[in-house]
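Much of what follows relies on a compact textual record of a protein's fold. A record is reproduced here so that you can trace the correspondence yourselves:
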Amino acid sequence: AIGPGPSTNTDYTNKAVSASATNTPITFDNTLKNGGNGADTFNLSVATGGAPTGSTVEISVNSGSTWTTVISNGSPTATPQVTTSSVASGANFNYKVRVTLPSGLPS
């Protein structure tokens, strides 16, 4: 993923969630790049291990107009991934991940 800096994997450089932000959705903006030699779609999912009970993770592939819940109450949903629209070879695709953590987590 290409983040706010010129290198890859820098999307989360300045994102942190404080204990006071629990039950408040935090949105992460992400970019993927199609490095293949043709147009393709991409399945977006999140790692399921370690999500605290009560947490929610959602993905939006349309600038936040709609969200698909991929983790609910700390567990994968029946639809644990979202598929992008077609991304041309060499093109970037922006998507969002929204995380809501439950209250009562250790600081």
About this structure: The chain has a mean pLDDT of 83. The beta strands are 26-33, 43-45, 56-60, 68-72, 75-76, 81-83, 92-100. The radius of gyration is 15 Å. The longest strand covers residues 92-100.
